[in-house]
UniProtKB/TrEMBL annotation:
<protein>
    <recommendedName>
        <fullName>RNA transcription, translation and transport factor protein</fullName>
    </recommendedName>
</protein>
<dbReference type="InterPro" id="IPR019265">
    <property type="entry name" value="RTRAF"/>
</dbReference>
<comment type="similarity">
    <text>Belongs to the RTRAF family.</text>
</comment>
<dbReference type="Pfam" id="PF10036">
    <property type="entry name" value="RLL"/>
</dbReference>
Length: 217
């Protein structure tokens, strides 16, 4: 709207830019005059605006930038420590998305929760609950967890957890942790079996040499 545009320019000059003295703003304030476009063009030249009078969107953007710079210059101490609302929102969202950042490991509730989870998942306990956590965060454990494995998808609803925490999300997490623990136990059992086979091959009597096709010493 032409009238709103002219009022906007006058407001910027009166309230923020203040390039003209008050007594010299008459022509710019006379928004109903047929000569206003000429007055506005002169004003643009006086404030060194690089755009033409026809480029309104660019002109508005440039004048707003000038107004902000002048506003900041007049109130630098007030605005120097300010943070944009969008940044604050992003920071708060990031903090809320990472609840473990402010976790107090000395909180009795946290200790009780770790022990309760160990009991539910039937994981070997340790007198020091922090040691239980550290054992899961060793370099070997992290490296092993980082290795990508391909396998068949698992339908959690087909696996009975055996207990109910009262929270569906926690129940699902517990199911996943238990399945991972079972997988580790199976790997351990496989290694034990391999070790037994290797020992039996060493102490077997009579010894069998398949390459020679004979049995005996």
């Amino acid at each position: 709207d032409e009238t709103e545009f002219r009022n906007f320019i006058v407001w910027l000059e009166d309230q923020k830019i203040r390039h003209y003295k008050i007594e010299d703003r008459g022509n710019l304030r006379n928004i109903h005059s047929d000569d206003w476009p000429k007055s506005f063009e002169k004003y643009m030249k006086d404030v060194n605006c690089p755009f033409k009078i026809q480029e309104r969107q660019e002109t508005v953007d440039w004048l707003l930038g000038l107004a902000v710079r002048l506003e900041y210059g007049d109130n630098a101490d007030k605005y120097k420590d300010s943070t944009p609302d969008g940044v604050k929102t992003t920071e708060n969202t990031a903090k809320n998305a990472e609840p473990l950042i402010n976790l107090d490991v000395n909180n009795p509730d946290f200790k009780a929760g770790v022990m309760a989870l160990a009991n539910l998942l039937q994981i070997q306990r340790h007198d020091d609950y922090l040691v239980m956590l550290k054992e899961r965060l060793t370099q070997d454990a992290i490296a092993k967890a980082s290795q990508s494995k391909e396998g068949l998808p698992v339908a959690l609803e087909k696996h009975i957890l055996g207990f109910d925490t009262g929270d569906a999300v926690i129940n699902e997490a517990a199911q996943i942790l238990r399945l991972l623990h079972i997988e580790e136990l199976r790997e351990l059992q496989t290694k034990i079996n391999e070790a037994i086979v290797a020992v039996q091959a060493i102490i077997a009597d009579p010894k069998t040499d398949h390459r020679l096709g004979k049995v005996g010493r």
